Amino acid sequence: MITLKGENIYLRALEPEDLEFVYAVENDESIWNVSNTQTPYSRFLIRQYLENAHQDIYEAKQLRLVICRNDNFSAIGLIDLFDYDPRNNRAGIGILIQDNENRGQGVGSEALQLLINYAFTHLNLHQLYANIDAENEISLKLFTTFGFQLIGTKKQWNLVNAVYKDESLYQLLR
């Protein structure tokens, strides 16, 4: 099991007990534009997903970790490496803090720092990239704080509430 510990939070592998948390996150329509989700997920599908969460990043091409608080061990978010490409030593990275009361407290920064360090030191990645809604100022600030640089804008890339929105591509090279 992967556990990455920080000062206030830790990242851990998905567990079967995360069913309701993942179900709530995946079915929260207010954040579907962040994850490009278009339809609800059933508990059955999420249970199947969790049963296969034991696959390592080389099999699944993805690593999804739960963000938990050190003090009460509660799950408050998810952070992912996705589209893992071992040949070119790169992966996409995404983060989601579920509830507003857990945002703006440095949790996302700490989680992102832990996963960046893991990706560069343990997975020996050369680069990470993030696809961010060009209007998502909080995410833009978070990723640029860690040195991610804007390398392009995909114009009118995502249709959100009948409006096409630009998506920015950010990259961090080791």
Account of the 3D structure:
The protein is α+β, with helices and mostly antiparallel strands. The chain has a single domain, classed as Gcn5-related N-acetyltransferase (GNAT) (Aminopeptidase). The protein has helices at 19-26, 32-35, 43-51, 57-60, 107-121, 137-145, and strands at residues 3-5, 9-13, 63-69, 75-85, 90-97, 127-133, 149-160, 163-173. It has an eight-stranded mixed β-sheet. A hairpin with a 3-residue loop joins strand 1 (3-5) and strand 2. It is globular and about 40 Å long. One of its GO terms (molecular function) is diamine N-acetyltransferase activity. Keywords: Acyltransferase, Transferase.
What is the structure about, briefly put?
Helix content is 28%, strand content 37%.
Key terms for this structure?
single chain; 174 residues; alpha+beta; Aminopeptidase; eight-stranded mixed β-sheet; 8 strands; 28% helix; globular
Produce the secondary structure layout.
Layout: E1 3-5, E2 9-13, H1 19-26, H2 32-35, H3 43-51, H4 57-60, E3 63-69, E4 75-85, E5 90-97, H5 107-121, E6 127-133, H6 137-145, E7 149-160, E8 163-173
Parallel strand pairs: 5-6
Antiparallel strand pairs: 1-2, 2-3, 3-4, 4-5, 6-8, 7-8
Helix pairs in contact: 1-3
Q: What is the N-to-C succession of helices and strands? A: EEHHHHEEEHEHEE
Low-confidence stretches: none
Distance between the first and last residues' Cα: 26 Å
Helix percentage: 25-40%
CATH superfamily: Gcn5-related N-acetyltransferase (GNAT)
The order of strands across the largest sheet is: 1-2-3-4-5-6-8-7
User: Would you state the CATH class?
Assistant: Alpha Beta
- Sheet bearing the most strands, described? 8 strands, mixed
Q: What count of structural domains?
A: 1
Mean pLDDT: 89
Strand share of the residues? 35-45%
Number of strands: 8
Keywords: Acyltransferase, Transferase
Pfam family, one: Acetyltransf_3
Enzyme class: transferase
GO molecular function: diamine N-acetyltransferase activity
